[in-house]
């Protein structure tokens, strides 16, 4: 029995080819009829570590084009203008706030979804996820249990989605669908809009605004987002290098790999140099080993550490203004290598006893000053930062995963943790590993 269980478990962890998946087959057939050609032999697969992704059916060489999507198959704001819902957008000229690019694309997906099989994008819509693991899908009460830096960014994201939704309602209150005769107010419901927003948030690619035709819809941000069928099935890895952009010779959006991929391996692309915090907030996943991973630190946190350790900050107001003017308030973080340069520099300035800006400038430009800083105070404050981060992560972990009856806890769904909460658990675990590594580096530096 034990051997059978182990064999079953081992078998369940194998990669599974999904090339006959109906939605995938329908998508590629639909795209082929519209001018798409497969440039590299890839197939849909379920991978034991990353879930659904694309597998190489043959060896891929450096410089090969992984995918080439005709511009006519990209969904941009220009695509929206030419659609029925685009007419409604174009009519709105007196809105107090212009539209966001993401808001327009989300509205388009929502509208096409309500059309069902009559939508020309139905085969693409069928491949989109039904649910997501980004914080947008959680209640604010859940997010309040997250570490402070996740709370702030997640709540800001949720408020943005809600404001965009409320912005759309009055703009479309008189618009009626010619297909089903439903009013836009019956179509634009919150749950569907949130789903569409998450689709754009997790799957849109960057496109140079110069490659998007001009249109009458008033925008308040850069017109640089596009949805690309098939391309959004690639998973992210920070270990790969690719070249992405519109090939003006064939009018296709292409991804070129800058390194080879072996047959039967997963083919990754690179979403950018994002930390796990960024990946969790924007895409709903984290990497097991992320070279860009950091724990953000806020200036107010540094002040709290000084207060907790009983160390005063001479001329605090002037020093803060000095740090702000010289851009030192940004890029405050902890990585596996320790505190960032800016963070260390700010600490030294705050500990400096001199009122002379000359000494502060020496610290900001050279990392040191002729004005002596107490090594013991510097050590105490650094240790206080580590303790504060550790305490914050432990508090969040206990709030989310402390003792509770999951039968009545909204962190659970059908006997399992909510996928977003479970991903947050993984993130907190990764952040703890950063803290452990940084502590070891700091200990070695002091010996």
Automatic annotation (TrEMBL):
Positions of transmembrane segments: none
InterPro entries registered for this protein in UniProt: SET_dom, SET_dom_sf, SETD3_SETD6_MTase, SETD4_SET
Matches recorded under CDD domains: SET_SETD4
Record-annotated SET domain positions: 40-272
Coiled-coil region: none
Molecular function per GO: protein-lysine N-methyltransferase activity
Protein name: SET domain-containing protein 4
Source species: Frankliniella occidentalis
Gene designation: LOC113205233
């Amino acid at each position: 029995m034990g051997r059978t269980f182990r064999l079953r478990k081992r078998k369940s962890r194998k990669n599974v080819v999904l090339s006959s998946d109906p939605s995938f087959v329908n998508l590629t057939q639909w795209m082929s009829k519209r001018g798409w050609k497969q440039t590299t032999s890839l197939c849909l697969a379920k991978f034991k570590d990353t879930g659904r992704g694309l597998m190489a059916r043959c060896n891929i060489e450096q410089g090969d084009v992984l995918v080439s999507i005709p511009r006519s198959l990209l969904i941009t704001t220009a695509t929206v203008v030419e659609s029925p819902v685009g007419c409604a957008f174009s009519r709105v000229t007196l809105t107090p706030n212009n539209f966001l690019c993401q808001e327009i694309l989300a509205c388009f997906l929502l509208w096409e979804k309500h059309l069902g099989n009559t939508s020309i994008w139905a085969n693409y819509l069928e491949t989109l996820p039904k649910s997501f693991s980004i914080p947008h899908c959680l209640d604010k009460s859940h997010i309040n249990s997250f570490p402070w830096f996740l709370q702030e960014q997640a709540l800001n994201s949720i408020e943005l989605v809600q404001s965009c939704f409320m912005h759309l309602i009055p703009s479309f209150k008189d618009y009626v669908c010619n297909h089903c005769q439903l009013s836009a107010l019956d179509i634009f419901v919150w749950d569907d809009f949130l789903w569409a927003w998450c689709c754009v948030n997790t799957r849109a690619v960057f496109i140079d605004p110069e490659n998007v035709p001009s249109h009458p819809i008033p925008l308040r941000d850069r017109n640089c987002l596009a949805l690309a069928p098939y391309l959004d099935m690639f998973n992210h890895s920070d270990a790969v290098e690719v070249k992405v952009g519109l090939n003006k010779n064939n009018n296709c959006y292409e991804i070129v790999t800058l390194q080879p991929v072996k047959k039967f391996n997963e083919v990754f692309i690179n979403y950018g140099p994002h930390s796990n915090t960024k990946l969790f907030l924007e895409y709903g996943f984290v990497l097991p080993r992320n070279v860009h991973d950091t724990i953000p630190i806020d200036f107010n946190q540094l002040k709290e550490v000084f207060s907790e350790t009983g160390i005063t900050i001479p001329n605090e107001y002037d020093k803060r203004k000095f740090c702000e003017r010289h851009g030192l308030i940004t890029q405050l973080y902890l990585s596996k290598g320790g505190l960032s340069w800016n963070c260390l520099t700010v600490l030294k300035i705050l500990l400096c006893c001199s009122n002379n800006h000359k000494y502060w400038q020496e610290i900001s430009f050279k990392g040191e000053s002729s004005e002596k800083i107490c090594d013991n105070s510097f050590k105490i404050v650094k240790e206080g930062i580590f303790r504060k981060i550790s305490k914050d992560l432990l508090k969040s972990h206990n709030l989310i995963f402390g003792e509770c009856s999951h039968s009545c806890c909204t962190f659970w769904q059908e006997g399992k943790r909510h996928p977003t909460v479970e991903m947050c658990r993984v993130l907190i675990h990764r952040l703890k590993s950063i803290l452990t590594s940084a502590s070891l580096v700091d200990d070695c530096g002091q010996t």
